[in-house]
């Protein structure tokens, strides 16, 4: 072989041909290596992409499952109104009226009633000679032998239904009143919703009280009653009925009222006309006034018992106590 001087051009033709072949071969090998490396990188990137997608899918599924379980848990603890309408919570039947369970439920509800912020606020307005309101409990001392034939004082009274007597805060001029009532699960039409007929009955009684106390004999009958239902009245809650005297003309009184939940949501509104019968003077007696929740001397068997004043701890007659059973309270 000749020495290389100045490059390949000094080599013989056979040597240059061999070197060119080797150069092309190396170039081809180098190109294949680059292609192989590129293919490896492409496959690695595809694998990394697949792994990222798998991880993203897993965490998306986990987050979705967590949200669903959390929503289910919150929905079970605090079910939305629509879900409660479709699938209300199961509830046991009302216990027997004189059972320990019934008495415990009544006492618990009485305590809750007296602890309501609205009740505590109104109670402040019943103190002193110039108090704006007075407090009363219609039917609280109604004897059992008389209550057996009464719808709201007898048949519907008891744990799981109308467990405790209404609590009334009435203005002393008998122009307005606020009535707190607890409605239980045993007075429903659709499960979980208070029967519309009972809603109308509670409105009728609250409005009648407002009207009767403004009629000459404190007696009257319902002539017309209009009820507009604005929202379902859910069971197992306290409701507030606000009543207002509209007009009084002789033996006729017109009143209006609304039912609210304790959050202030309007549930129903009503207006009514009450008329005093011509023979009302023959029927008028102290029992009627006593049952309406006014201060008057009751007849035999209807003795007064001190009213519970919210925040004072004084007891009020409740279902199960002797006074409800028609037995006069013991006196010292």
What does this structure look like?
There is one protein chain. The chain has 332 residues and is of the alpha+beta class. The chain folds into 2 domains: 8-68; 100-325, Thiol Ester Dehydrase, Chain A, CATH 3.10.129. 39% of the residues lie in helices and 18% in strands. The chain is built from 9 helices and 7 strands, in the order H-H-H-H-E-H-H-E-E-H-E-E-E-E-H-H. The chain has helices at residues 13-77, 81-86, 100-115, 117-123, 144-147, 151-155, 196-212, 280-283, 286-292; strands at 133-136, 167-171, 176-183, 221-229, 237-249, 252-261, 266-275. It has a 7-stranded antiparallel β-sheet, with helices on both faces. Strand 6 and strand 7 (266-275) form a beta hairpin. The longest helix is centred in the first third of the chain and has 65 residues, at 13-77. The radius of gyration is 41 Å and the shape is rod-shaped. The chain starts with 12 loop residues before the first helix and ends in a 40-residue tail after the last helix.
How are the secondary structure elements laid out?
Layout: H1 13-77, H2 81-86, H3 100-115, H4 117-123, E1 133-136, H5 144-147, H6 151-155, E2 167-171, E3 176-183, H7 196-212, E4 221-229, E5 237-249, E6 252-261, E7 266-275, H8 280-283, H9 286-292
Antiparallel strand pairs: 1-2, 2-3, 3-5, 4-7, 5-6, 6-7
Keywords: Isomerase, Membrane, Transmembrane, Transmembrane helix
InterPro entries: HotDog_dom_sf, PTE-AB_protein, Thioestr_dom
Protein name: Thioesterase/thiol ester dehydrase-isomerase
């Amino acid at each position: 072989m000749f020495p290389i001087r100045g490059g390949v051009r000094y080599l013989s033709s056979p040597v240059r041909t061999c070197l060119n072949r080797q150069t092309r071969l190396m170039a081809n090998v180098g190109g294949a290596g680059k292609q192989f490396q590129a293919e490896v990188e492409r496959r690695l990137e595809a694998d990394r992409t697949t792994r990222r997608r798998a991880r993203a899918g897993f965490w998306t599924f986990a987050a979705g499952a967590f949200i669903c379980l959390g929503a289910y848990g919150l929905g079970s603890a605090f079910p939305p109104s629509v879900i409660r309408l479709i699938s209300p919570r199961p509830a046991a039947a009302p216990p027997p009226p004189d059972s320990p369970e019934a008495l415990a439920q009544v006492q618990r509800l009485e305590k809750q009633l007296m602890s309501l912020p609205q009740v505590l606020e109104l109670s402040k307005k019943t103190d002193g000679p110039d108090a704006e309101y007075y407090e009363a409990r219609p039917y609280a001392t109604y004897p059992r032998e008389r209550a057996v034939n009464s719808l709201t004082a007898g048949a519907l009274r008891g744990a799981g239904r109308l467990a405790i007597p209404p609590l009334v805060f009435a203005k002393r001029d008998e122009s307005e009143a606020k009535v707190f009532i607890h409605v239980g699960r045993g007075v429903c039409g659709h499960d979980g919703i208070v029967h519309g007929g009972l809603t109308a009955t509670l409105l009728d009684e609250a409005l009648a009280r407002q009207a009767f106390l403004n009629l000459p004999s404190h007696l009257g009958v319902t002539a017309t009653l209009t009820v507009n239902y604005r929202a379902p009245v859910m069971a197992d809650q306290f409701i507030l009925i606000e009543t207002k005297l509209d007009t009084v003309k002789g033996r006729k009184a017109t009143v209006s009222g609304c039912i609210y939940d304790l959050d202030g949501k309007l549930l129903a509104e009503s207006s009514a006309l009450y008329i005093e019968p011509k023979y009302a003077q023959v029927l008028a007696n102290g029992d009627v006034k006593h049952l309406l929740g006014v201060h008057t001397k009751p007849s035999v068997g209807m003795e007064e018992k001190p009213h519970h004043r919210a925040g004072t701890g004084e007891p009020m007659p409740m279902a199960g106590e002797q006074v409800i059973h028609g037995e006069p309270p013991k006196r010292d």
